[in-house]
Every structure is written in structure tokens, then in C-alpha cells.
Design a protein that fits this description.
seven-stranded antiparallel β-sheet, alpha+beta, globular, 3 domains, six-stranded mixed β-sheet
């Protein structure tokens, strides 16, 4: 098949995914409320949908373009091999075959209906009718209201928003926790709230640690049981008017009540203190082979060369503690300048949280470091 190398035509979708942006507290709710008014949900029979050159033609709605996540969800949902789809999508003479393949398997769906989450003329998600939407505006509004009433010491720290996901951090700067071996190494405790409206991840509330000395943050609770989570699974939606269904309304309101209750509960300081104690223990172990350890760390967490270079520049020692802090400091550094990488900052803060109390990961990194060292010695002998 001939590779496509022509200017964009109608069937070739120009991705319009909104970039994640950092939003100040006074603009957060207004931004999310505006986004919410631009979105529509439809429960549609699969028989009323056809695929044509990257678009869905939907009876009663018309032609809708597929955003990246929706496209991936469609391919996975109907069981088309993803590399096969990608290959045909990018070849000039593959479109007709791709259209017929997609439509054939769409008609084979066992489920009668599908939930389409749209944004204007774009499909942002293709989901099961049992998908329970927990919308970002509702999450943020309840978070602000609950903290104002029950925990006014919680102050807004960061808010990251795009068309489908949020990541909001609050910090209580009146509640200090100190590293046992250094009373001047102070952390504030907070909360990190994340949610996706398009099936990318669950709604979750996780502990957040903010280090005063260098303004770094770490997101805890990556392991099962270390965070409050709500999965987007609920009762089946029969049609597009599901928001008027009393059973749906009851179920949705019950979820919001549970979420608000979790938001109003005080942070489990004892749990956080155990994490701080584990963090302090990292000062007792040192990295001996910096080069190969960097290589192991890069491969395990998919770090970039630029991130490794920044880590090296900001790292103040060679203990595990120093290496962990260099990751969270890098998360801080990459959000500066004209092209802030705000999504990546959250990812690096999560890596810091993972390393904070997981000895298995450190053990794996050390074993991988030894493997690289032995391989290097064998190569030198050749």
C-alpha cells in the first residue's frame, strides 16, 4: 500500500485535543462550567452509526469527527487490531478497506447501544452505556464548597484542566510534618484530586506532600488501598434522556454524597507520617554507579534525556533520598518558561510518590544497575 503524503483532506482528522493548562483558583469553576455547557452525551444504537474516513455518521446527529481517545476506544471496543487500523488509516488506498472493516465489526457488537460523549462536532469518548460520568465541574465545585466549610486551612495549590480531565491540589500550610532526622526539612500535607470524564482513569483523592524547602510536591496513593477511588461504573443507560431517569439521578447523587463525605474527612496524619518515616530511611542508602543507575531509572519510568540532565543538575547528593528529590525538583523546573510541561509535572510527582515507600522498585533499579554494569564489563573485554 502506498503511504499517504498529501495535504489534509476531509477524511484526515486534524487532532483538536485541548492542551492541559494551569488554571488559577478564581478561574477554575468558571472555566469548567463553560466547558460543561459545550458538551453533550448521546446513547445511540450501534446500528445507527457508520464509520467513514475517520468520522462517525450518526443518525439524528450527523457527522462527528473522532478525537484521539475516542478513536482508540472505538478500535478496542469492536476488536480491530490497533496496528492494522493505524496502517490502513495512513495509506492512500487503505481507506475503503478500513471503512468496510470498521463497519463490519461495529454491526457485530453484542451491546445494543453505545454512549457517545461529544464536544461540539467531535466525539471525545466512546463508552459502555454503563459508564457513570462523574463530571469535572461537579467535582471541582464540591471540592471548593467542602473545603470552605469543613477545612478552611486547605489552600488552593495547583489546578490543571483540559477538555476532559482535571488534577487539583490543595495544601494545608498550617499542618507541618518533619523528617525525623532533620527538623528543618518540613512538609505540608495536602490532597491531590484527579478525574477523567472520558474513561482514561478513575476519580481519585490521594495524599499530597509539599516540601517547603524547595517547593517540590509528591503525590502518594498510587498503590491500591492508599487512595479514595470511585470507578465510573453504574446502571445501564437506555437512551439519550438518561439524565432524567430517576434511578440515574438517585445513583449519581449518591456518588456525589460519598465523594463529598470523603472530601470532608480529615487527612490521615498517621498514614502520612509512616510515609515520611519511609522517606527518611532513603537517606541511609546510596547509589554507587550513577551512570548505570540513571540508565535503569530512565528505562523503568520512561524518563527523557532532558529530564535526566535536569535531575543531575539539581541533585544535591547520591542517596536514594537525593535521587527522589531530584525527580520532584525536576517536576517543578519543567513547568517554568514559555513552554511549561504541566501534565508531565504531575506524572513526575506521582513517580516521586511511588519511590517514597516502595523498596521493591529501588531493589529492581539496583539489580538493573548491576546488569548494566556487568554487560559493560563484558563489552569492554571484547
Amino acid at each position: 500500500m502506498k503511504e499517504a503524503n498529501v495535504e489534509m483532506e476531509k477524511g484526515e482528522i486534524v487532532e483538536q485535543e485541548q492542551q492541559i493548562i494551569e488554571v488559577k483558583e478564581d478561574a477554575l469553576l468558571a472555566k469548567l462550567e463553560k466547558m460543561a455547557t459545550e458538551k453533550e452525551d448521546y446513547v445511540i444504537p450501534w446500528d445507527d452509526i457508520t464509520y467513514n474516513n475517520g468520522y462517525l455518521n450518526v443518525k439524528s446527529i450527523g457527522e462527528l469527527a473522532l478525537k484521539k481517545t475516542a478513536k482508540n476506544q472505538l478500535v478496542a471496543s469492536i476488536g480491530v487490531y490497533s496496528p492494522y487500523y493505524t496502517k490502513l488509516e495512513h495509506t492512500l488506498d487503505g481507506q475503503d478497506l478500513l471503512n468496510s472493516t470498521m463497519n463490519f465489526w461495529m454491526k457485530k457488537k453484542v451491546d445494543k447501544n453505545v454512549l457517545l460523549r461529544t464536544d461540539g462536532r467531535y466525539v471525545r469518548a466512546i463508552l459502555s452505556p454503563r459508564y457513570k460520568a462523574i463530571d469535572n465541574y461537579e467535582v471541582a465545585k464540591n471540592l471548593v464548597e467542602v473545603f470552605e466549610k469543613t477545612n478552611p486551612n486547605m489552600t488552593y495549590h495547583h489546578g490543571l484542566v483540559n477538555g476532559s480531565a482535571i488534577n487539583i491540589q490543595y495544601v494545608d500550610q498550617t499542618h507541618e510534618i518533619h523528617i525525623p532526622s532533620d527538623e528543618h526539612d518540613t512538609y505540608f500535607v495536602g490532597v491531590n484530586v484527579q478525574n477523567s470524564e472520558i474513561g482514561e482513569h478513575s476519580f481519585a483523592m490521594m495524599d499530597y506532600l509539599y516540601r517547603l524547602i524547595c517547593t517540590n510536591g509528591m503525590i502518594l496513593g498510587q498503590k491500591s488501598g492508599d487512595a479514595d477511588r470511585w470507578y465510573h461504573i453504574g446502571g445501564e443507560k437506555k437512551d439519550t434522556n438518561y439524565t432524567n431517569d430517576p434511578q440515574y439521578v438517585k445513583e449519581y447523587n449518591a456518588t456525589l454524597i460519598d465523594i463529598k463525605k470523603a472530601m470532608s474527612e480529615k487527612i490521615d496524619v498517621e498514614r502520612v507520617q509512616k510515609k515520611i518515616d519511609a522517606l527518611d530511611m532513603l537517606k541511609k542508602s546510596k547509589v554507587e554507579d550513577e551512570t548505570n543507575f540513571s540508565r535503569a531509572l530512565k528505562n523503568y519510568f520512561m524518563l527523557s534525556d532532558a529530564e535526566l540532565a535536569t535531575m543531575k543538575e539539581v541533585r544535591q547528593g547520591n542517596t536514594y533520598y537525593d535521587w527522589l528529590q531530584s525527580i520532584t525538583k525536576t517536576a517543578n523546573v519543567i513547568t517554568r518558561g514559555d513552554n511549561p510541561k504541566v501534565r508531565r509535572r504531575v506524572e513526575l510527582e506521582k513517580i516521586g510518590g511511588l519511590l517514597m515507600g516502595d523498596g521493591k522498585i529501588w531493589g529492581h533499579l539496583e539489580l538493573q544497575t548491576k546488569d548494566y554494569e556487568l554487560k559493560g564489563k563484558k563489552d569492554d573485554k571484547k
